[in-house]
Design goal:
The radius of gyration is 16 Å and the shape is globular. It has 194 residues and is of the alpha+beta class. Helices cover 36% and strands 34% of the residues. The protein contains five helices and eight strands. The structure holds flavin mononucleotide. Residues 17, 30, 32-35, 45-47, 49-51, 72, 76, 142, 145-146, 149 line the site of flavin mononucleotide (FMN).
C-alpha cells in the first residue's frame, strides 16, 4: 500500500485535514482534527494534546474523512459523545465518516514542543463515495477552527475571525453557519480565559 493508493480513501497529495480518532491505553476514545501530510511519505506532526498522549500510548491513529463542518468545530474545541464512535478490531473510528484509514505510527522526530510520526496504513474502509464541490464557507470554518485552537486575543486574530465569518455568512450552508457560531463562542471563551 503506497501513499498514492490512499487517494480513493480521500487522502491526496499535500496536507489533508481529517478527524483523527485515537484511544488511551485504558480504551477511552478521542477525536480531534489533524493534518495528514503526504509528500511521498505519510506523516503527522502532533503538538501537546490528548491525541499525542494517546498515540504515544498505543502507536495507532485513524484518519476519518469527514465533510461535515460541525465535526471539525466540535472536535477541535471540545468533545463528541461516545455514541459517535464505532470500533474496528477494538479501535475507535467515526460512525459517520465517509471513509477511514487506520495507521500504525512510527516515531520519526521528537522536538521540544511536537512529535512527528510516519504513518503505515494497516486497514481502511469506505462507507460512501461522496462528491462535494468546493464550498468557501466550509473552508472558512476549517481556518477559523485552526485559528481558535491557537487563539490569541490580538487585533489581528479578531480581524481574521471576522473575515472568516463574512465568508461563511456569504457562502456557507446551515451546517457551516452553526459550526462558525460554535467556533466563535469557543474563541471568545478561550480569549477571555487568557
Ligand atoms: C483543521 C485543523 C487541523 C489541525 N491539525 C493539527 C495537526 O496536524 N497537529 C496538531 O497537533 N494539532 C492540529 N490541530 C489542532 C488540534 O485539533 C487541537 O489542538 C485539538 O484541541 C486537540 O484535541 P485533543 O486534545 O482532544 O487531541 C488542528 C486543528 C484543526 C481545526
Amino acid at each position: 500500500m503506497t501513499p498514492e493508493d490512499l487517494s480513493s480513501y480521500g487522502i491526496g497529495d499535500g496536507i489533508s485535514e481529517v478527524i483523527a480518532t485515537t484511544q488511551s491505553s485504558s480504551g477511552k476514545p478521542n477525536a480531534a482534527p489533524v493534518g495528514i501530510i503526504n509528500r511521498g511519505e505519510l506523516l503527522i506532526r502532533l503538538y501537546k494534546s490528548r491525541t499525542l498522549s494517546n498515540v504515544l500510548e498505543t502507536m495507532k491513529i485513524a484518519a476519518n474523512i469527514c465533510a461535515d463542518a460541525m465535526i471539525f468545530a466540535i472536535t477541535a474545541l471540545g468533545d463528541i459523545d461516545d455514541e459517535k464512535f464505532t470500533h474496528f478490531r477494538g479501535f475507535p473510528v467515526l460512525k459517520d465518516a465517509d471513509a477511514w484509514i487506520l495507521f500504525r505510527c512510527h516515531m520519526r522526530e521528537r522536538a521540544a514542543n511536537f512529535f512527528v510520526f510516519n504513518l503505515e496504513p494497516i486497514a481502511m474502509h469506505a462507507n460512501r463515495k461522496r462528491v462535494m464541490a468546493v464550498n468557501r464557507g466550509f473552508n472558512a470554518v476549517i481556518e477559523a477552527a485552526i485559528l481558535a485552537t491557537r487563539a490569541k486575543n490580538t487585533e489581528k486574530s479578531v480581524k481574521m475571525m471576522e473575515h472568516y465569518k463574512r465568508i461563511v455568512d456569504k457562502c456557507g450552508g446551515r451546517r457551516e453557519k452553526d459550526a462558525m457560531n460554535f467556533v466563535i463562542s469557543a474563541f471568545r471563551r478561550i480569549c477571555d480565559e487568557r
